[in-house]
Fold this sequence. Notes:
Number of strands: 7
Structural class: alpha/beta
Strand order of the largest sheet: 3-2-1-4-5-7-6
Helix content: 25-40%
CATH class: Alpha Beta
Low-confidence stretches: none
Strand content: 15-25%
Shape: globular
Largest sheet: 7 strands, mixed
CATH superfamily: LmbE-like
Mean pLDDT: 95
CATH architecture: 3-Layer(aba) Sandwich
Radius of gyration: 17 Å
Order of helices and strands: EHEHEHEHHEEHHHE
Number of helices: 8
Amino acid sequence: MAETIERPDRALVVTAHPDDEIGCAGTIARWTRDGTEVLLVVCTSGDKGTEDPEMPAERLALIRAKEQQGAAEALGIRELVMLEHPDGGLEDTRELRGQLVRQVRRWQPQLVLCHEYLFRARHSHRDHRVCGQATVDALFPYARDPQHFAEITAEGHQPHKVGTALLWGSEDPTVFVDIEDAMDTKIKAMLCHASQFLRPGRDPNREPGDFMRMGAQKTGELAGFAFAEGYRKIEFRT
């Protein structure tokens, strides 16, 4: 049975790359419109995200950071943090987990949105899988227990218990958010990432948002909505 979820007062979104928040952008837009405060943490600089061999990585990172800021503003996100790990080189290390724990404890979210990392029938970007796994591990047990990352506790960032994580991109979503009235905002945010979604060579007869509408429509069919985003839910002991 399709499940909906109550809007949180504070939410954390963790992505691997600039533009990945588009996977849950309709949910973000709905929630921020209704008062949710959202922190977006982007783990990499996205400095390899191009098919142009002449594009310097340093320049691309600057472009993508600017695009990400524009998309965050379009979605009503309160704060953006970019960790600037190398694109394609995200590793599940103590450093990454500590960076995520610091943001969880600082922001104190009730709910966290991140990448799905478990797949049976398809492959996903390695950075996405690493990001999703590291995020969930940061939530439990590391952000919860004061002796994990005691140096962060000593900084004044007290342990925090997150109740729920929602993972987008799942093969078997069970939680759905109706994004019919946020679909245009989702596409507006997507178009802020021009280096990714408005690349030369795209089909001129196809609007850039068409594939996004089709995907949201297909997900909506699973839950009886015109357009939806779907998630796998993980609940933690609090």
